[in-house]
Specification:
By secondary structure, the protein is an alpha+beta fold. A two-stranded antiparallel ribbon has the order 1-2. It has one helix at residues 76-92; strands at residues 2-4, 11-13. The chain has 1 helix and 2 strands; from the N terminus they run E-E-H.
């Protein structure tokens, strides 16, 4: 499966059937794959920037972690489209 790195925005292949190791990195910029920024629950608008209410608070969202609720975000393009549409709508009312 292809995923997009949060840091360099490049696509790379990853085996989604296996658990994502804490040491897994983007092959281009070496950013951590098992970080909050690559998680499905990451949301800057949510409390502690995480939609999973039971997750522990993590200060550095770009470093690898041991979160039990981590789930690789495979819908990154859909989130980007939603954010772009929301930004465009907000720009109309400024």
């Amino acid at each position: 499966m292809e995923v997009k790195c949060f840091s360099c925005q490049k696509l790379f292949e990853i085996d989604h059937n296996q658990a994502i190791a804490r040491s897994e990195e983007c092959p281009y910029c070496y950013s951590s794959v098992r970080s909050c920024r690559m998680c499905e629950f990451y949301d800057v608008k949510a409390y502690n920037e995480c939609r999973e209410s039971s997750a522990d608070r993590l200060v550095d969202k770009e470093k690898s972690n041991f979160c039990d609720y981590y789930k690789l975000n495979t819908n990154q393009d859909k989130e980007q489209i939603k954010d772009d549409a929301l930004s465009a709508a907000n720009a109309l009312f400024k």
